[in-house]
Amino acid sequence: MLSRSKSDKRASYKLCQKRGEDAAGHLRPFDFFVGGRSSVPFEMSSKPVLYTHTISPAGRAVELTVKALNLDVDVREMNVFKGQHMSDEFKKLNPVQTIPTLDDNGFVLWDSHAIMIYLARRYGADSGLYTDEYEQQARINAALFFESSILFARLRFCTDNLTVLGKSAIPEENLQRALEGLQRLERMLQSEYVAGDQLTIADLSCVSSVATLHLMLKPSAEEFPKTFAWMERLSKLPYYGEVMGRGLKAAGELMQTLGSKNSGGGGSDGN
Predict the structure, then answer these.
(1) Cα–Cα distance for residue pair 62/247, rounded to 1 Å
(2) Rg of the chain's alpha carbons, rounded to an integer?
(3) What pLDDT score was predicted for residue 83?
(4) 110 has which bridge partners?
(5) 263: confidence class by pLDDT, cuts 50, 70, 90
(6) Using an 8 Å Cβ cutoff, are 101 and 87 in contact?
């Protein structure tokens, strides 16, 4: 059994890197869906470059924004479970070594929320995805902060048990905290979208984490009618299926594979 005596980030990185490299010749949970997308190394590009990972909700939120703005962006897949974001080369680009990271002709920015605001303001002034109107901007920002501090944070409190700590199951307390985050969102949805009557980057940010939480918690439409109606509305966006489909498939397979592997039952790459 893998030791969990070391809790520092370096040990966690080595654990994840080890898991990403064993058992050659089979589809591994950390190699999902990189076909058709550029991958590192970090060649120069004439277009904005987005370094991301399909399985990352934050990365998917930025990709949704890119699609909503109809931008021509070079999307480069970085497999964080194999430690590609920990390389010295990427550290020079982004000293905090997180994804998603945007390189727009030498202007480098990280954190999905900051990237989404930047893209909407620079390339989508007339898109309605963000605004300079003070009150509406405050509503959008509040929803973005809610996604970061509640939805995504509680999702990580769950998934880190599998990906970092090597547990076979997510503790019930963590699952209940995640469910309570969804309940807050249900109360927050007072209009068709999270910040009012128009689609904004706040919706694209929130839905990326919420869809992953739904995959894990399997809530019912009876319990969360406003949330399900909101998600159905977003699912009709022409680019939603392309971005979210592959990421949610990868997330589901990852959770299933790690749960089995961490419990000693093996996985799809164990034969």
Answers:
(1) 13
(2) 19
(3) 84
(4) 101
(5) low
(6) no
The per-residue pLDDT for range 182-195, each reduced to its tens digit, is 999 999 999 999 99
Side chain identity at residue 153, one-letter code: A
Q: Give the C-alpha distances (Å, rounded to integers) separating 101 from 50, 112, 114.
A: 6, 8, 10
Copy the structure tokens of residue 195: 């910040």
For CA atoms 13, 19, 25, 29, the dihedral sign is negative
Distance CA 144, CA 113 (A): 7
Under 8 Å between Cβ of 27 and 174: no
pTM: 0.80
Asked whether residue 71 carries a pLDDT value surpassing 70, the answer given is yes
Residue type at 11?
Answer: A
Residue 38 pairs with which residues in a beta bridge? 76
Nearest to 66 by CA among 252, 197, 208, 250: 208
260: pLDDT confidence band, cut at 50, 70 and 90?
low
Asked whether residue 33 carries a pLDDT value surpassing 80, the answer given is no
Q: How many Cα atoms occupy the beta-carbon half-sphere of 107 within 13 Å? A: 8
166 three-class SS: coil
Structural element, H or E, at residue 234:
helix 225-235
Q: Which of 177, 178, 193 lies closest to 227 in space, CA to CA?
A: 193
Nearest Cα residue to 93 out of 146, 42, 144, 20: 42
- Total residues found in the chain within this entry: 271
- Give dist(CA 209, CA 178) in Å, integer: 11
Closest among 194, 196, 198, 223 to 209, alpha carbons compared: 194
Bridge partner residues of 196 (DSSP) = 193
The strand order across the sheet containing 101-104 reads: 38-39, 74-77, 49-52, 101-104, 107-110
